[in-house]
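Input sequence (431 aa), recorded before submission:
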Amino acid sequence: METASRCSPNDHLVIIGNGMASHRLVEALVNQPQRPRAITVIGAEPTPAYNRILLSPLLAGDMRHDALTLRDAAWYADNGVTLHLGEQVETIDRGKRLLTTERGHAIHYDRLVLATGSRPALPNVPGIKLGGVHGFRDLDDAAELEAIAKRGGHALVIGGGLLGLEAAEGLRKRGNELNVSVLQRSDRLMNRQLDATAADLLKDALTKRGLNIVTQAQLARLEGDANGQVCAAVLKDGRRLPTDSVIIAAGITPNADIGRNAGLTTERAVMVDAFLKTSDPAIHALGECCQFEQHTYGLVEPIWHQVEVLAATLSGEPTNGYREVPTATKLKVSGVALYAFGPTDPGPEHDELRYQDPQSGDYRRLLLRDGRLEGAVLYGDTRHGPWYFEQALAGTDLSASRQALLFGAADAEVLKDQQNDTPHLSTSEAA
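Predicted structure, token format:
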């Protein structure tokens, strides 16, 4: 356990960004007995923090807008937190520890946290700036996509990963007269999480719902009409796909410019150490805008761990610092159950276990190395996913349970218990 220096009781902590990571940090800090004297949060969006994970069900019409709000503005005031909404920080003067916002506000800080998130990664192709090309990262994007769904016509989603599929399914559910296509550069959907069998099952399920899935589709350019609106996507193999709108969901780019312009050490994002400290000891970075070792972030689980570390660091509580741990993936598409972690494809060092029931649509594939679980892909029945993940994290030797592993925790635990209850003879006894 190590204890990093915390903010003193007289310190002013300023957080740039009011997304999920920032909000979770604020919630952790206000409950600390040694919280900073003053906390200021500056958010570029005009609304208080909300749950971005729920943008997909919001778009699909499965959730109300107000259900996304994490805390209203009154909560910040009640907890002694100053909240600036709809305002962006333009410059950081590290020597004076002074921020300047676009509205001309000058705000002094003693400690600063960058939690500026990310933006959609835009393909470097002609036509990407045409009207009708959208991202899917915030409430405004969700409103734009809802309007697209209601207008009908043709929509192209670029990206067959988690976000792209959730956006495509949301558009399909919301739009009665909308044809939705998904363009995936890889040869399979969710290629970072799924093996070929699970990806094919997913593709079949989404195709039956009415989505047009196009794999191995490399975008060459977008074409516009006389009014500067996108009207078609042209692929590198020459195919031309007419469309009225394009939604970019092919990865994210960390919002690291504010740190880079301030002279902080950056690579793909703002570099941090195990205590989320940047190259300036008065400045920390958190979430999608930061880089730890070679890692950048787009899933909430590692970011929540970062929040725990940073809250302890700022409060002077003992912490071992941040470290990388495996994460599991779940797809948020109604009626499709997926759970995956670890390698997508087996290596020569892996013992591979498979089960598939064509009638029920269930598929399971486990990868073990020396009796220990390293990866799993579950499609259909995902009930045992968390148990598999728990065993993988713990490094449990499952050799005794191997023949029952595909059938879940109960059967595997019975075999393991039987193995533990079997008396073992010593060498002398056997002789």
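Checked by second reader. The chain is about 25% helix and 25% strand.
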